[in-house]
Amino acid sequence: MWVLCFLFVSYNTQKTYLCNLFMVHLHPFTQHILQWYSVHARSLPWRQTRNPYAIWLSEIILQQTRVAQGEAYWHRFMAQYPTVEHLASASEDQVLLLWQGLGYYSRARNLHAAAKEIAKQRLLSLVFLQN
Known about the structure:
Blueprint (H helix, E strand, L loop, with lengths): L1 E10 L5 E9 L2 H13 L11 H10 L5 H14 L3 H6 L2 H8 L5 H26 L1
Antiparallel strand pairs: 1-2
């Protein structure tokens, strides 16, 4: 089986994306796994979106956590903090309160710190692009 892949390489000065197209031949075992997945994959909310924040949030929550437990927390976080900017503007105590019950609180602290940094970098990018 051959798969067509897109690889976005860079953002050029004309503000368009340059990308490479290439074909990849999949090993038979990889084909088998992908076929199994297409039949048996669970329907999970972060698989139904292309929102990087929602997907990233699921990755952090699901570290050391069962999907059945983590999914409820993901929904709570997405309802309370629908964007990375919302999460960044929350206090650490608010984030830890919503995280309560998941354990490994350093994940919540690091998630919050990363959200603050992402929001700061986005703001700097917007200021830079406007000038």
